[in-house]
Write a structure and sequence with these properties.
The structure is a single chain. This protein is of the alpha/beta class. It has 2 domains: 179 residues, NAD(P)-binding Rossmann-like Domain (Rossmann fold, 3-Layer(aba) Sandwich), CATH 3.40.50.720; 237 residues, Rossmann fold (3-Layer(aba) Sandwich), CATH 3.40.50. The protein is 42% helix and 13% strand. It has 17 helices and 13 strands. The strands form 3 sheets. Strands 10-9-8-11-12-13 form a 6-stranded parallel β-sheet. Strands 3-4-5-6-7 form a 5-stranded mixed β-sheet, with helices on both faces. A two-stranded parallel sheet has the order 1-2. The radius of gyration is 23 Å and the shape is globular. The model has no long low-confidence stretch (mean pLDDT 97). It binds uridine-5'-diphosphate-glucuronic acid. Uridine-5'-diphosphate-glucuronic acid binds next to helix 8.
Protein backbone atom coordinates (compact mmCIF):
# COMPACT_ATOMS: atom_id res chain seq x y z
CA UNK A 1 0.00 0.00 0.00
CA UNK A 2 2.84 2.40 0.85
CA UNK A 3 4.57 1.68 -2.45
CA UNK A 4 1.32 2.65 -4.20
CA UNK A 5 1.54 6.09 -2.63
CA UNK A 6 -0.61 5.66 0.48
CA UNK A 7 0.32 6.62 4.02
CA UNK A 8 0.44 3.38 6.00
CA UNK A 9 0.58 2.47 9.67
CA UNK A 10 1.20 -1.24 10.37
CA UNK A 11 -0.05 -2.39 13.78
CA UNK A 12 0.70 -5.68 15.52
CA UNK A 13 0.61 -6.87 19.13
CA UNK A 14 3.97 -8.65 18.68
CA UNK A 15 6.72 -6.24 19.73
CA UNK A 16 9.53 -8.30 18.24
CA UNK A 17 7.81 -8.28 14.86
CA UNK A 18 7.27 -4.53 14.97
CA UNK A 19 10.91 -3.99 15.93
CA UNK A 20 12.14 -6.13 13.02
CA UNK A 21 9.79 -4.47 10.54
CA UNK A 22 10.92 -1.02 11.68
CA UNK A 23 14.46 -2.10 10.79
CA UNK A 24 13.25 -3.19 7.34
CA UNK A 25 13.27 -6.91 8.16
CA UNK A 26 10.09 -8.80 7.22
CA UNK A 27 9.17 -11.53 9.72
CA UNK A 28 9.21 -14.10 6.88
CA UNK A 29 11.07 -14.64 3.61
CA UNK A 30 9.23 -13.23 0.64
CA UNK A 31 11.07 -12.24 -2.57
CA UNK A 32 11.09 -8.46 -3.12
CA UNK A 33 9.36 -7.54 0.14
CA UNK A 34 12.38 -6.38 2.13
CA UNK A 35 13.36 -3.87 -0.59
CA UNK A 36 9.84 -2.42 -0.65
CA UNK A 37 9.75 -2.14 3.14
CA UNK A 38 13.01 -0.21 3.29
CA UNK A 39 12.03 2.07 0.41
CA UNK A 40 8.65 2.95 1.90
CA UNK A 41 10.10 3.61 5.36
CA UNK A 42 12.85 5.79 3.89
CA UNK A 43 10.18 7.79 2.07
CA UNK A 44 8.33 8.24 5.37
CA UNK A 45 5.08 6.71 4.11
CA UNK A 46 5.20 3.58 6.26
CA UNK A 47 5.56 3.14 10.00
CA UNK A 48 5.10 0.19 12.35
CA UNK A 49 3.77 0.31 15.87
CA UNK A 50 2.14 -1.74 18.62
CA UNK A 51 0.00 1.27 19.51
CA UNK A 52 -3.36 0.83 17.82
CA UNK A 53 -4.32 4.44 18.59
CA UNK A 54 -1.74 5.43 15.92
CA UNK A 55 -4.22 3.99 13.45
CA UNK A 56 -6.98 6.32 14.59
CA UNK A 57 -6.31 8.90 11.90
CA UNK A 58 -6.52 6.36 9.09
CA UNK A 59 -9.57 6.25 6.85
CA UNK A 60 -9.28 2.60 5.88
CA UNK A 61 -8.38 -0.19 8.30
CA UNK A 62 -7.27 -3.49 6.81
CA UNK A 63 -7.61 -6.49 9.11
CA UNK A 64 -5.01 -9.03 7.97
CA UNK A 65 -4.46 -11.31 10.96
CA UNK A 66 -4.28 -15.11 10.75
CA UNK A 67 -7.12 -17.60 11.18
CA UNK A 68 -5.30 -20.85 11.97
CA UNK A 69 -6.95 -24.22 12.51
CA UNK A 70 -8.22 -24.59 16.09
CA UNK A 71 -6.24 -27.16 18.06
CA UNK A 72 -8.14 -30.46 18.10
CA UNK A 73 -10.79 -29.25 15.64
CA UNK A 74 -11.31 -28.59 11.94
CA UNK A 75 -12.78 -25.14 12.49
CA UNK A 76 -10.85 -21.88 12.01
CA UNK A 77 -9.81 -19.88 15.06
CA UNK A 78 -11.12 -16.34 14.51
CA UNK A 79 -10.11 -14.97 17.90
CA UNK A 80 -7.32 -12.84 16.36
CA UNK A 81 -9.76 -11.25 13.91
CA UNK A 82 -12.17 -10.53 16.74
CA UNK A 83 -9.39 -9.05 18.88
CA UNK A 84 -8.15 -6.83 16.04
CA UNK A 85 -11.64 -5.47 15.35
CA UNK A 86 -12.33 -4.97 19.07
CA UNK A 87 -9.10 -3.00 19.43
CA UNK A 88 -10.12 -0.74 16.52
CA UNK A 89 -13.61 0.05 17.80
CA UNK A 90 -12.62 2.97 20.11
CA UNK A 91 -10.81 4.62 17.17
CA UNK A 92 -13.53 4.31 14.51
CA UNK A 93 -15.75 7.15 13.30
CA UNK A 94 -18.59 7.39 10.81
CA UNK A 95 -16.08 8.03 8.00
CA UNK A 96 -13.93 4.96 8.77
CA UNK A 97 -14.00 1.78 6.70
CA UNK A 98 -12.92 -1.57 8.17
CA UNK A 99 -11.80 -3.96 5.44
CA UNK A 100 -11.41 -7.61 6.38
CA UNK A 101 -8.78 -9.53 4.41
CA UNK A 102 -8.39 -12.58 6.66
CA UNK A 103 -9.82 -15.89 5.46
CA UNK A 104 -12.87 -16.41 7.66
CA UNK A 105 -15.86 -18.74 8.00
CA UNK A 106 -18.82 -17.42 6.04
CA UNK A 107 -20.95 -15.27 8.35
CA UNK A 108 -18.02 -13.58 10.12
CA UNK A 109 -18.25 -10.26 8.24
CA UNK A 110 -21.90 -9.85 9.11
CA UNK A 111 -21.18 -10.59 12.75
CA UNK A 112 -18.30 -8.08 12.83
CA UNK A 113 -20.44 -5.45 11.10
CA UNK A 114 -22.61 -5.76 14.20
CA UNK A 115 -19.57 -5.25 16.46
CA UNK A 116 -18.63 -1.93 14.80
CA UNK A 117 -22.21 -0.79 14.10
CA UNK A 118 -22.28 1.67 17.02
CA UNK A 119 -19.32 3.63 15.60
CA UNK A 120 -21.03 4.37 12.28
CA UNK A 121 -18.02 2.91 10.43
CA UNK A 122 -18.59 0.76 7.33
CA UNK A 123 -17.55 -2.89 7.11
CA UNK A 124 -16.23 -4.52 3.91
CA UNK A 125 -14.85 -7.97 3.17
CA UNK A 126 -12.07 -8.02 0.60
CA UNK A 127 -10.51 -11.50 0.37
CA UNK A 128 -6.84 -11.93 -0.41
CA UNK A 129 -5.67 -14.25 -3.17
CA UNK A 130 -1.89 -13.82 -3.00
CA UNK A 131 0.42 -16.80 -3.15
CA UNK A 132 3.44 -17.07 -0.87
CA UNK A 133 6.62 -16.64 -2.88
CA UNK A 134 4.75 -14.30 -5.30
CA UNK A 135 3.14 -12.09 -2.68
CA UNK A 136 4.53 -8.75 -3.85
CA UNK A 137 3.47 -9.16 -7.46
CA UNK A 138 0.13 -10.77 -6.59
CA UNK A 139 -0.64 -7.87 -4.26
CA UNK A 140 0.37 -5.08 -6.63
CA UNK A 141 -1.16 -6.77 -9.69
CA UNK A 142 -3.98 -9.04 -8.48
CA UNK A 143 -6.04 -11.01 -10.99
CA UNK A 144 -9.28 -9.76 -9.45
CA UNK A 145 -10.66 -7.65 -6.62
CA UNK A 146 -13.70 -8.78 -4.67
CA UNK A 147 -15.50 -6.33 -2.39
CA UNK A 148 -18.12 -7.71 -0.02
CA UNK A 149 -20.46 -5.01 1.30
CA UNK A 150 -23.50 -5.23 3.57
CA UNK A 151 -26.07 -4.60 0.85
CA UNK A 152 -24.09 -6.22 -1.98
CA UNK A 153 -24.56 -3.08 -4.10
CA UNK A 154 -21.92 -1.44 -6.30
CA UNK A 155 -23.22 2.01 -5.34
CA UNK A 156 -22.58 1.34 -1.63
CA UNK A 157 -20.57 4.42 -0.46
CA UNK A 158 -17.76 2.23 0.93
CA UNK A 159 -17.00 0.93 -2.59
CA UNK A 160 -15.69 4.29 -3.82
CA UNK A 161 -13.32 4.47 -0.84
CA UNK A 162 -11.73 1.12 -1.61
CA UNK A 163 -11.60 2.01 -5.32
CA UNK A 164 -9.40 4.94 -4.33
CA UNK A 165 -7.07 2.65 -2.39
CA UNK A 166 -6.83 0.28 -5.36
CA UNK A 167 -6.78 3.00 -8.06
CA UNK A 168 -3.54 1.76 -9.65
CA UNK A 169 -4.93 -1.77 -10.02
CA UNK A 170 -8.24 -0.59 -11.40
CA UNK A 171 -6.30 1.54 -13.90
CA UNK A 172 -4.72 -1.73 -15.13
CA UNK A 173 -8.23 -3.05 -15.82
CA UNK A 174 -8.18 -5.50 -12.94
CA UNK A 175 -11.70 -6.96 -12.77
CA UNK A 176 -13.55 -5.79 -9.66
CA UNK A 177 -16.69 -7.43 -8.32
CA UNK A 178 -18.99 -6.12 -5.62
CA UNK A 179 -20.92 -8.81 -3.73
CA UNK A 180 -22.65 -9.31 -0.42
CA UNK A 181 -20.58 -10.37 2.61
CA UNK A 182 -21.32 -14.08 2.38
CA UNK A 183 -20.40 -14.32 -1.30
CA UNK A 184 -17.11 -12.47 -0.75
CA UNK A 185 -16.20 -14.78 2.11
CA UNK A 186 -17.16 -17.85 0.12
CA UNK A 187 -15.20 -16.73 -2.98
CA UNK A 188 -12.01 -17.16 -0.99
CA UNK A 189 -12.89 -20.52 0.53
CA UNK A 190 -14.29 -21.85 -2.73
CA UNK A 191 -11.18 -20.76 -4.68
CA UNK A 192 -8.81 -22.51 -2.26
CA UNK A 193 -11.04 -25.60 -2.20
CA UNK A 194 -11.00 -25.73 -5.99
CA UNK A 195 -7.21 -25.43 -6.07
CA UNK A 196 -6.86 -28.19 -3.46
CA UNK A 197 -9.28 -30.34 -5.46
CA UNK A 198 -7.27 -29.85 -8.63
CA UNK A 199 -4.07 -30.93 -6.90
CA UNK A 200 -5.69 -33.95 -5.26
CA UNK A 201 -7.38 -34.90 -8.53
CA UNK A 202 -4.05 -35.16 -10.31
CA UNK A 203 -2.55 -36.97 -7.30
CA UNK A 204 -5.40 -39.48 -7.44
CA UNK A 205 -4.53 -39.94 -11.12
CA UNK A 206 -0.93 -40.46 -10.01
CA UNK A 207 -2.10 -43.37 -7.86
CA UNK A 208 -3.81 -44.85 -10.92
CA UNK A 209 -0.72 -44.22 -13.01
CA UNK A 210 1.34 -46.14 -10.47
CA UNK A 211 -1.17 -48.99 -10.53
CA UNK A 212 -1.23 -49.15 -14.32
CA UNK A 213 2.30 -48.15 -15.35
CA UNK A 214 1.28 -44.80 -16.86
CA UNK A 215 3.07 -41.44 -16.46
CA UNK A 216 1.14 -38.75 -14.59
CA UNK A 217 3.29 -35.87 -15.87
CA UNK A 218 2.40 -36.72 -19.48
CA UNK A 219 -1.21 -37.26 -18.44
CA UNK A 220 -1.30 -33.79 -16.84
CA UNK A 221 0.30 -32.20 -19.91
CA UNK A 222 -2.24 -33.84 -22.19
CA UNK A 223 -5.38 -33.06 -20.19
CA UNK A 224 -4.07 -29.59 -19.40
CA UNK A 225 -4.02 -28.72 -23.10
CA UNK A 226 -7.79 -28.59 -22.93
CA UNK A 227 -8.22 -24.99 -21.84
CA UNK A 228 -11.38 -25.90 -19.97
CA UNK A 229 -9.09 -27.93 -17.68
CA UNK A 230 -5.81 -25.97 -17.86
CA UNK A 231 -2.33 -27.19 -16.89
CA UNK A 232 -1.87 -25.00 -13.80
CA UNK A 233 -2.14 -26.72 -10.39
CA UNK A 234 -1.92 -30.13 -12.03
CA UNK A 235 1.58 -30.85 -10.76
CA UNK A 236 1.38 -34.28 -9.19
CA UNK A 237 3.70 -35.13 -6.34
CA UNK A 238 3.82 -34.79 -2.61
CA UNK A 239 0.68 -32.67 -2.50
CA UNK A 240 -0.30 -29.45 -0.82
CA UNK A 241 0.72 -28.03 2.53
CA UNK A 242 1.14 -24.56 3.99
CA UNK A 243 -0.92 -22.31 6.17
CA UNK A 244 -3.84 -22.00 3.75
CA UNK A 245 -5.08 -24.89 1.60
CA UNK A 246 -5.10 -27.64 4.28
CA UNK A 247 -6.72 -25.56 7.02
CA UNK A 248 -9.08 -23.77 4.64
CA UNK A 249 -10.68 -26.97 3.33
CA UNK A 250 -11.05 -28.24 6.90
CA UNK A 251 -12.56 -24.98 8.14
CA UNK A 252 -14.92 -25.07 5.15
CA UNK A 253 -16.11 -28.56 6.12
CA UNK A 254 -16.61 -27.42 9.72
CA UNK A 255 -18.54 -24.31 8.71
CA UNK A 256 -20.67 -26.20 6.17
CA UNK A 257 -21.58 -28.60 8.98
CA UNK A 258 -22.71 -25.72 11.20
CA UNK A 259 -24.85 -24.45 8.33
CA UNK A 260 -26.41 -27.88 7.80
CA UNK A 261 -24.77 -28.17 4.36
CA UNK A 262 -22.02 -30.66 5.21
CA UNK A 263 -22.97 -33.02 2.34
CA UNK A 264 -22.12 -30.28 -0.16
CA UNK A 265 -18.43 -30.36 0.75
CA UNK A 266 -18.11 -33.93 2.03
CA UNK A 267 -15.84 -34.56 -0.98
CA UNK A 268 -13.22 -32.29 0.61
CA UNK A 269 -12.58 -35.04 3.14
CA UNK A 270 -11.50 -37.24 0.25
CA UNK A 271 -9.37 -34.39 -1.14
CA UNK A 272 -7.65 -34.20 2.25
CA UNK A 273 -7.17 -37.99 2.40
CA UNK A 274 -5.67 -38.21 -1.10
CA UNK A 275 -3.31 -35.40 -0.11
CA UNK A 276 -2.22 -37.07 3.13
CA UNK A 277 -1.71 -40.45 1.37
CA UNK A 278 0.98 -38.89 -0.84
CA UNK A 279 3.23 -38.38 2.17
CA UNK A 280 2.93 -42.01 3.22
CA UNK A 281 3.40 -43.19 -0.37
CA UNK A 282 6.56 -41.10 -0.63
CA UNK A 283 7.99 -42.82 2.44
CA UNK A 284 6.98 -46.25 1.06
CA UNK A 285 8.71 -45.62 -2.27
CA UNK A 286 11.87 -44.38 -0.57
CA UNK A 287 12.01 -47.38 1.79
CA UNK A 288 11.27 -49.80 -1.03
CA UNK A 289 14.08 -48.30 -3.14
CA UNK A 290 16.47 -48.82 -0.23
CA UNK A 291 15.63 -52.52 -0.03
CA UNK A 292 12.81 -52.43 2.54
CA UNK A 293 14.33 -50.64 5.53
CA UNK A 294 15.65 -47.23 6.56
CA UNK A 295 17.62 -48.61 9.49
CA UNK A 296 21.18 -47.30 9.35
CA UNK A 297 20.55 -45.46 6.06
CA UNK A 298 21.46 -41.82 5.58
CA UNK A 299 18.60 -39.95 3.89
CA UNK A 300 18.99 -36.44 2.52
CA UNK A 301 15.81 -34.37 2.27
CA UNK A 302 16.03 -31.48 -0.19
CA UNK A 303 13.54 -28.87 0.98
CA UNK A 304 11.78 -28.07 4.24
CA UNK A 305 9.46 -25.23 3.20
CA UNK A 306 5.95 -26.17 2.04
CA UNK A 307 6.77 -24.66 -1.34
CA UNK A 308 9.78 -22.99 -2.98
CA UNK A 309 10.58 -19.27 -2.49
CA UNK A 310 9.10 -19.37 1.00
CA UNK A 311 10.45 -20.08 4.49
CA UNK A 312 7.01 -21.20 5.65
CA UNK A 313 7.01 -24.70 7.15
CA UNK A 314 3.39 -24.81 8.31
CA UNK A 315 2.04 -28.26 7.43
CA UNK A 316 5.06 -28.81 5.21
CA UNK A 317 4.78 -32.12 3.31
CA UNK A 318 8.60 -32.29 3.17
CA UNK A 319 8.95 -32.11 6.95
CA UNK A 320 6.12 -34.61 7.43
CA UNK A 321 8.05 -37.10 5.27
CA UNK A 322 11.32 -36.31 7.07
CA UNK A 323 9.71 -37.07 10.43
CA UNK A 324 8.07 -40.29 9.22
CA UNK A 325 11.41 -41.57 7.93
CA UNK A 326 13.17 -40.59 11.16
CA UNK A 327 10.59 -42.53 13.19
CA UNK A 328 11.29 -45.56 10.97
CA UNK A 329 14.98 -45.49 11.83
CA UNK A 330 16.41 -43.45 8.97
CA UNK A 331 19.24 -41.01 9.66
CA UNK A 332 17.66 -37.92 8.17
CA UNK A 333 19.39 -34.72 7.11
CA UNK A 334 17.19 -31.84 5.96
CA UNK A 335 18.41 -28.90 3.92
CA UNK A 336 16.62 -25.83 2.54
CA UNK A 337 17.79 -22.46 1.19
CA UNK A 338 15.54 -20.41 3.53
CA UNK A 339 13.43 -22.51 5.90
CA UNK A 340 15.96 -24.13 8.23
CA UNK A 341 15.46 -21.63 11.06
CA UNK A 342 11.69 -22.17 11.06
CA UNK A 343 11.98 -25.93 10.54
CA UNK A 344 14.42 -26.41 13.41
CA UNK A 345 12.17 -24.40 15.72
CA UNK A 346 9.18 -26.56 14.77
CA UNK A 347 10.89 -29.96 14.71
CA UNK A 348 14.16 -29.62 16.65
CA UNK A 349 14.64 -33.40 16.64
CA UNK A 350 15.65 -33.48 12.96
CA UNK A 351 19.18 -32.82 11.70
CA UNK A 352 19.53 -29.67 9.58
CA UNK A 353 22.39 -28.64 7.29
CA UNK A 354 22.49 -25.33 5.42
CA UNK A 355 24.92 -26.27 2.69
CA UNK A 356 23.49 -28.50 -0.07
CA UNK A 357 26.82 -30.18 -0.85
CA UNK A 358 27.35 -31.02 2.80
CA UNK A 359 23.79 -32.37 3.06
CA UNK A 360 24.32 -34.63 0.04
CA UNK A 361 27.70 -35.97 1.08
CA UNK A 362 27.60 -39.65 2.02
CA UNK A 363 23.84 -39.94 1.44
CA UNK A 364 22.23 -43.33 0.72
CA UNK A 365 19.10 -41.78 -0.79
CA UNK A 366 18.18 -38.24 -1.86
CA UNK A 367 14.56 -37.10 -1.65
CA UNK A 368 13.63 -33.93 -3.54
CA UNK A 369 10.56 -32.69 -1.65
CA UNK A 370 10.42 -28.91 -2.24
CA UNK A 371 11.26 -27.82 -5.76
CA UNK A 372 13.64 -24.90 -5.16
CA UNK A 373 15.43 -23.82 -8.36
CA UNK A 374 18.76 -24.89 -6.83
CA UNK A 375 17.55 -28.50 -6.52
CA UNK A 376 15.91 -28.59 -9.96
CA UNK A 377 19.28 -27.52 -11.40
CA UNK A 378 21.33 -30.22 -9.64
CA UNK A 379 23.73 -31.95 -11.99
CA UNK A 380 23.34 -35.76 -11.89
CA UNK A 381 27.06 -36.41 -12.48
CA UNK A 382 28.33 -33.91 -9.92
CA UNK A 383 25.76 -35.06 -7.36
CA UNK A 384 26.77 -38.70 -7.92
CA UNK A 385 30.33 -37.82 -6.79
CA UNK A 386 28.98 -36.74 -3.38
CA UNK A 387 26.61 -39.52 -2.38
CA UNK A 388 27.16 -43.08 -1.15
CA UNK A 389 24.12 -44.49 -2.95
CA UNK A 390 22.79 -43.14 -6.24
CA UNK A 391 19.12 -43.27 -5.25
CA UNK A 392 16.90 -40.31 -5.99
CA UNK A 393 13.18 -39.96 -5.28
CA UNK A 394 11.64 -36.93 -6.98
CA UNK A 395 8.67 -35.93 -4.82
CA UNK A 396 7.71 -33.03 -7.10
CA UNK A 397 8.20 -34.53 -10.57
CA UNK A 398 10.54 -31.74 -11.59
CA UNK A 399 13.64 -33.63 -12.76
CA UNK A 400 14.20 -35.35 -16.10
CA UNK A 401 14.34 -39.09 -15.32
CA UNK A 402 16.49 -40.00 -18.35
CA UNK A 403 19.24 -37.56 -17.31
CA UNK A 404 19.49 -39.09 -13.85
CA UNK A 405 19.18 -42.69 -15.01
CA UNK A 406 21.85 -42.26 -17.66
CA UNK A 407 24.18 -40.96 -14.93
CA UNK A 408 23.67 -44.25 -13.09
CA UNK A 409 20.98 -43.17 -10.64
CA UNK A 410 17.97 -45.17 -9.52
CA UNK A 411 15.29 -42.55 -10.19
CA UNK A 412 11.84 -42.95 -8.64
CA UNK A 413 8.90 -40.57 -8.56
CA UNK A 414 5.26 -40.42 -7.56
CA UNK A 415 2.98 -41.42 -10.43
CA UNK A 416 5.69 -42.26 -12.94
CA UNK A 417 7.00 -45.64 -14.07
C1 LIG B 1 -2.79 -20.49 -1.66
C2 LIG B 1 -3.57 -20.02 -2.90
O1 LIG B 1 -2.91 -20.47 -4.08
C3 LIG B 1 -3.66 -18.49 -2.92
O2 LIG B 1 -4.45 -18.06 -4.03
C4 LIG B 1 -4.31 -18.03 -1.61
O3 LIG B 1 -4.39 -16.62 -1.55
C5 LIG B 1 -3.48 -18.53 -0.44
O4 LIG B 1 -3.41 -19.97 -0.48
C6 LIG B 1 -4.14 -18.09 0.83
O5 LIG B 1 -5.20 -18.62 1.16
O6 LIG B 1 -3.69 -17.14 1.47
P1 LIG B 1 -0.18 -20.65 -1.04
O7 LIG B 1 -0.63 -21.35 0.21
O8 LIG B 1 0.85 -19.58 -0.97
O9 LIG B 1 -1.46 -20.00 -1.79
O10 LIG B 1 0.42 -21.77 -1.99
P2 LIG B 1 0.03 -22.50 -3.36
O11 LIG B 1 0.82 -21.94 -4.46
O12 LIG B 1 -1.45 -22.54 -3.54
O13 LIG B 1 0.56 -23.96 -3.06
C7 LIG B 1 -0.03 -24.72 -2.01
C8 LIG B 1 0.57 -26.10 -1.95
O14 LIG B 1 0.15 -26.86 -3.07
C9 LIG B 1 2.09 -26.16 -1.93
O15 LIG B 1 2.49 -27.10 -0.97
C10 LIG B 1 2.44 -26.62 -3.33
O16 LIG B 1 3.64 -27.35 -3.35
C11 LIG B 1 1.25 -27.50 -3.66
N1 LIG B 1 0.99 -27.65 -5.11
C12 LIG B 1 0.68 -26.58 -5.87
C13 LIG B 1 1.02 -28.91 -5.67
O17 LIG B 1 1.29 -29.93 -5.01
N2 LIG B 1 0.76 -29.04 -7.02
C14 LIG B 1 0.44 -27.99 -7.80
O18 LIG B 1 0.20 -28.19 -9.01
C15 LIG B 1 0.41 -26.73 -7.21
Amino acid sequence: MASLGHEVVGVDVDEAKIEALTQGRPPFFEPGLSELLVKAQDKGSLEFTTDVSRAAAAGVHFVCVGTPQKPGEFAADVTYVDAAVDSLVPHLTSTSVVVGKSTVPVGTAERLAGVIAGTGAAMMWNPEFLREGHAVDDTLHPNRLVYGVADGRADNPAVAGLDEVYASMLAEDTPRMVTDFATAELVKTAANSFLATKISFINAMAELCEASGADVTQLADAIGMDDRIGRKFLNAGLGFGGGCLPKDIRAFMARAGELGADQAVAFLKEIDSINMRRRVRMVDIARDTLGGSFIGKKITILGAAFKPDSDDVRDSPALAVARLIATQGGVVTVTDPQAIANASRTFPELNYVTDTTEALTGSDAVLLLTEWREYRDLDPQATAELVSGKVLVDGRNVLTPEQWRSAGWTYRALGRP
